[in-house]
Known about the structure:
The complex is a heterodimer.
Chain A: E1 5-12, E2 16-17, H1 25-39, E3 49-53, E4 79-82, H2 88-101, E5 107-112, H3 122-127, H4 142-157, H5 161-176, H6 189-194, E6 197-199, E7 202-203, E8 211-212, E9 215-221, H7 222-228, E10 233-242, H8 256-269, H9 274-277, E11 280-282, H10 288-297, H11 306-311, H12 328-331, H13 336-351, E12 364-371, E13 377-384
Parallel strand pairs in A: 3-4, 3-5, 11-12
Antiparallel strand pairs in A: 1-9, 1-10, 2-8, 5-9, 6-7, 10-13, 12-13
Helix pairs in contact in A: 2-13, 4-10, 5-10
Chain B: E1 5-16, H1 23-38, E2 47-51, H2 54-57, H3 63-66, H4 68-72, E3 76-81, H5 84-96, E4 102-109, H6 115-120, H7 135-150, H8 154-168, H9 182-187, E5 190-192, E6 195-196, E7 205-214, H10 215-221, E8 226-235, H11 242-246, H12 249-262, H13 267-270, E9 273-275, H14 282-290, H15 299-304, H16 321-324, H17 331-345, E10 351-357, E11 367-375
Parallel strand pairs in B: 2-3, 2-4, 9-10
Antiparallel strand pairs in B: 1-7, 1-8, 4-7, 5-6, 8-11, 10-11
Helix pairs in contact in B: 5-17
Amino acid sequence: xxxxxxxxxxxxxxxxxxxxxxxxxxxxxxxxxxxxxxxxxxxxxxxxxxxxxxxxxxxxxxxxxxxxxxxxxxxxxxxxxxxxxxxxxxxxxxxxxxxxxxxxxxxxxxxxxxxxxxxxxxxxxxxxxxxxxxxxxxxxxxxxxxxxxxxxxxxxxxxxxxxxxxxxxxxxxxxxxxxxxxxxxxxxxxxxxxxxxxxxxxxxxxxxxxxxxxxxxxxxxxxxxxxxxxxxxxxxxxxxxxxxxxxxxxxxxxxxxxxxxxxxxxxxxxxxxxxxxxxxxxxxxxxxxxxxxxxxxxxxxxxxxxxxxxxxxxxxxxxxxxxxxxxxxxxxxxxxxxxxxxxxxxxxxxxxxxxxxxxxxxxxxxxxxxxxxxxxxxxxxxxxx
Amino acid sequence: xxxxxxxxxxxxxxxxxxxxxxxxxxxxxxxxxxxxxxxxxxxxxxxxxxxxxxxxxxxxxxxxxxxxxxxxxxxxxxxxxxxxxxxxxxxxxxxxxxxxxxxxxxxxxxxxxxxxxxxxxxxxxxxxxxxxxxxxxxxxxxxxxxxxxxxxxxxxxxxxxxxxxxxxxxxxxxxxxxxxxxxxxxxxxxxxxxxxxxxxxxxxxxxxxxxxxxxxxxxxxxxxxxxxxxxxxxxxxxxxxxxxxxxxxxxxxxxxxxxxxxxxxxxxxxxxxxxxxxxxxxxxxxxxxxxxxxxxxxxxxxxxxxxxxxxxxxxxxxxxxxxxxxxxxxxxxxxxxxxxxxxxxxxxxxxxxxxxxxxxxxxxxxxxxxxxxxxxxxxx
Lengths: 385, 380
């Protein structure tokens, strides 16, 4: 990167179910953005560009940002619209980081839209992201993407249903103390296992809910960050990787592209031992097993050793490598908002502002997002104090 | 100035009313040809930026289909919605932040859709969508307002179209290649008064791709490159006033930012030509002033005197512009290519402005981009 870039602020709304949502899309955007601005005593006209992240297909509008007047349109602030599926949060943040690092803007706001809160049937919409002629007719939806990875991983490493339930329970326990989580019931391993089977091997509580809520983050140049914020979180590296559209080539036993990407990123920032060098990790885990696949792809453990890492308790809030102390996407999935939230959560952790879910004095964190047809895209960001 | 990037390769497939290829095939063909022209391989790429909107591709997360076709396999890739110059802006930021040395910016238009329905669905569900607001209705409202406020006539609109078609007849990639005369434009039927059929752009199918590179890499590859020295962006208010809309405030913000970045203080003097996004002829008249290419209140006079024709003193849309070809996903990339080609063909020209937006979805809440292209030897 050319110039240093920092996260100086995060704004969150509370999260609820889309069926209980009473706030409009504009109100959600306003609430999240207002909080992010207030935190650093800025007003919207101080922002030089806004990055809107969503997936059009899920929204009630084509290009919904056009009609939401929360992004300083009255001041003709540029609104940059990024859509790369579930990774749109990561891609949008990457856009903001590039714009600030290049010296084009000093202050850029990234907004994660509550993508799912107008959708009647998410599975059906997600099916339209599949290759139209070869794969869409099979009826692949979001839950199936999770189950394909889960099933193959189970077979590959002799993982049990209980192992999967354990990783889900770890997230549910964490979410119970996160004021910005949607499902805060703290389901135990036994409760996860007795929840209804949705798409084998995934039970209901191993699959994310459909949430509504929004998040905003402000990115600043070095000068602006030091002026406006006492605990800026610096962006050390940020990148993405793309896989093919057709799923037929995929093996599903691991996140092979994430493995390539994380190696590149670690080399860039000089991380040699991820488990030792990272202090907090937020993984995009709409399905329980994803977290285990990501442990391995991110090099937190050897191949096939994720369950061991989990059972050791290393990835819990008080473990040596806490993963998803927020409860992850598994407990709160407001669409692309959840993709931005992975980064916002790591930033809050490093700032020491992760109320109810604070990891003990972390200095370096990693945020991950996943998206596109059957997870063809990944993004990884490394933040530090 | 924050730095500049070089255009080292480009390619266009089409344009026409229909294509026989799918979006990914189109993106592949255009990107591969552009990489070949640049003399680099996919392995050299730092990023691939796709310009598209899901609804124009008929599938959700449609860049899933095109990202790897544009060279993005196992690479960084992203997708920008809101016009091709917006995607060029993303590559510009990527290269200037030292995140990439080379980037492909590509887009394709292959899928047939109902433009009126798509445009209508981009309006809010409570106020404007139920009254049937859609892009052409907004265009016609702006045209009537322009007539009332500036004394522009229907002949003026036809004149813009006729000069575009004359230029288009020399453009091998034009969708409408016939050099329709002023009389022919005036005889074409009204679609929405005061707009006639030949004053409204077609919806074109095809693809366009650009390969851009850092200053250092560009100098290694090209002796006489075209540089992108600045890009600005601005968004208009959805519930803004009519006078704000007529002032094209988003476009003014975008051009202001771009000119500051490029160090342009008097655009009317310094800019030699412009490629603009005008899906209906009258917008070119308004845009010429919002871009500062014509002094205030002078764009009609310049048009009437032929100064903005392709062979005039200040050509606007010398390629034939949007009336010649209007692919919604890759249009901004096409305009950037045409701006670069203008500089390559006209050796005395130094600076060209490329203006783009997402108003193909309609007015209100639209985002504009303005890029400054400059020619200068590698020593500059």
